[in-house]
Amino acid sequence: MKTWKLVSLVLVGLVSAGAIASFVQKRSEGVKLNATEMPVPYEIADFTLTRTDGQVLSRKDFLGKYTLLYFGFTRCPDACPTTLAQWKAAIPKLSPDAKSNTQLLLVSVDPEHDTHEILSDYVKKFDPSIVAATGEQKELQKIANAMMTTFHKEGENAGDPDLYMMAHSPKYFLINPNAQLQAVYTPPIETAVLADDLNRLADKQVSRLF
């Protein structure tokens, strides 16, 4: 009898967990994005980075909201400032719901140079609402693997160890409120189109709550 009770409790737990995951995933159903969508949202493994305010950033910080993630570094000459300039232009186009339900996240892949102070000053030049974080190489590799992308140092010079660049993806990674990789944006993409996608996702998410 006790065995059957235990089995029943386990089954109830599994069904409940599945129902919750299904509910969160269905929030985005019916929203056709201008991006490459995962056939099935991809579960993100945990990682530990540090935000510019000293707080830990991990997988749990993706729960409950959409996150648009970009890998970059502050000395990037072109793609990174172009991306953050686009985000800056998109923010005023976001609805109140989208602003409160969307996180714009820059992950620096150059922790050797990008201290918290440098990284903080960099994103503030674009918009103070943009979150920035970095961490140890092994943790950066974890989140890069979760996004199915890579990064590496290139152009190192033995005479001047600071003369190097970071090769990284120019793509934007959309993480859903269940901490799953849902879609990937490949630039160029129009700012109005990006903002519209985020607005429609937020509208769908909020409507599911009522």
Description of the structure:
Helices cover 38% and strands 24% of the residues. The chain is of the alpha+beta class and 210 residues long. It has one domain (2-208): Glutaredoxin (3-Layer(aba) Sandwich), CATH 3.40.30.10. The protein is globular. It starts with a helix and ends with a helix. It has an eight-stranded mixed β-sheet with strand order 1-10-9-4-5-6-2-3. The chain has six helices and ten strands, in the order H-E-E-E-E-H-H-E-H-E-H-E-E-E-E-H.
Question: Biggest sheet: strands, sense, closure?
Answer: 8 strands, mixed
In whole angstroms, the N-to-C terminal distance is: 40 Å
Domains (count) = 1
Overall geometry comes to: globular
Instruction: Label the CATH architecture.
Output: 3-Layer(aba) Sandwich
Strand content: 15-25%
CATH superfamily: Glutaredoxin
Keywords, separated by commas or semicolons:
210 residues, alpha+beta, Glutaredoxin, 8-stranded mixed beta sheet, two-stranded antiparallel sheet, 10 strands, 24% strand, globular, disordered N terminus
